[in-house]
Amino acid sequence: MSRIGTPSPFLYLATTPKGGRTVGLRQARSERALADTLRQDRMVLLRTWRLPAAFASEPRLTLKDQVELNSQLSMLLTRGVPLVEALEVTATVVTPGMQPVVARMMEMVAGGTSFADTCRKVGVFDEITVAVYQAAERTGDLGGSAAQLAETARRQQAIKGKAGTVMLYPVVVLCIAVMAALVLLIAVIPRIGQSLEEAGAKLPWFTAVLVDVGVFMKTEWAYLLGGVAVVAVLLVFGRRHVFLALGRLSRSLPALKQVILIQESARFFSVMAALSRSGVPLADALGIANGAVRHPTLQSQLKTLRTRLVEGGVLHGLIDKVTALPLATRRLLMAAERAGDLDTAFDGLARDMADELDRRTSRLLALLEPAVIVLMFLIIGSMVLALMIPMLTISNQMM
């Protein structure tokens, strides 16, 4: 059982406002809290099933919601609209799942809670956003900080989209190749193989193996589906380790490791630009922005930089030791530090890294296209050749 007060994942069955029924997955502290949440969406809870904690996910605003929320807040607050009224309007532009959260924020702000504390208490904002809002309340420029956060979210959305584009193409092509291979293996190869054996052809060992595998998959499909289901469950429960392993593998591939480093650098500089322009002290900004970096080498070097900076180190010399960043980037930061204009440098580097990521992503896709086609040919072509060789052999014997 989950601890009292800790949100748990629920699979629920509820009636919709139009009289239909819907099934969904939400997190709530109890069945009663889930019913209250669904009631706000004009749905009536009928039945619930509490799921294991492995199905739980930390509630967070999506990048799309961050863009919409901060853009709307910036536009309204800079024009003098009170914060409570701005939040009321903002609740209409976020996704339905986040509308109750924004409504709760509006109630807390109306009750006298500061905006930064409200964002921290609702639990859907990350540490970076809360820190920017906290600094903005001290400077009195909440609208300007919201605009900076919206721009940061747009950049991160673009970075995520480019990374997704790189992965989507090979995944789609490989899925098509695997499905075609399964059709050949289950429906085609066993029949042709058995026909060739009846015709007196001697099957090569690899053709015989494919025929036996195809017959087994066709007759024992229930066991195969059970095995696939077990693997899927294991992947769900061990998804953290799977993602870590995939991350280590991708960082070791020559074609991907530089793209990943640029992606992480673009995210870091985008966050630093938002924090520094909001007035967050450099040491604090480094500590917060480092949490957005997932590249182990870059993260370790940035952590060392911050630690030595807090201990009294000279930033000019510490930047040069972050060797994970390109030399040109380090020199630019050192020049900006001497000129006292790190805010502009962070913003410019975020744009430059995003442009460089776009170029490298295009090159990587150009390399992946022929590589994936060759791999698809190897998967399907090997099966076709396994059938063609004995067919050609028996044709020659009949001549």
Notable traits:
single chain, 399 residues, Receptor-associated Protein, three-stranded antiparallel sheet, 16 helices, 3 strands, disordered N terminus
Describe this structure in words.
This protein has 399 residues and is mainly alpha-helical. Among the domains are: 8-55; 196-399, Type II secretion system (T2SS), domain F (Receptor-associated Protein, Up-down Bundle), CATH 1.20.81.30. Helix content is 73%, strand content 6%. It has helices at 31-40, 63-77, 83-90, 99-110, 115-122, 127-139, 142-198, 205-219, 221-237, 239-252, 254-277, 282-290, 296-310, 315-319, 327-339, 342-398; strands at residues 8-15, 21-28, 44-50. A 3-stranded antiparallel β-sheet has the order 2-1-3, with helices on one face. Strand 1 and strand 2 form a beta hairpin. Helix 2 packs antiparallel against helix 7 (142-198), helix 5 runs antiparallel to helix 6 and helix 12 (282-290) runs antiparallel to helix 13.
How do the helices and strands line up, and which of them pair or pack?
Blueprint: E1 8-15, E2 21-28, H1 31-40, E3 44-50, H2 63-77, H3 83-90, H4 99-110, H5 115-122, H6 127-139, H7 142-198, H8 205-219, H9 221-237, H10 239-252, H11 254-277, H12 282-290, H13 296-310, H14 315-319, H15 327-339, H16 342-398
Antiparallel strand pairs: 1-2, 1-3
Helix pairs in contact: 2-3, 2-7, 3-4, 4-5, 5-6, 6-7, 7-8, 7-11, 7-16, 11-12, 11-16, 12-13, 15-16
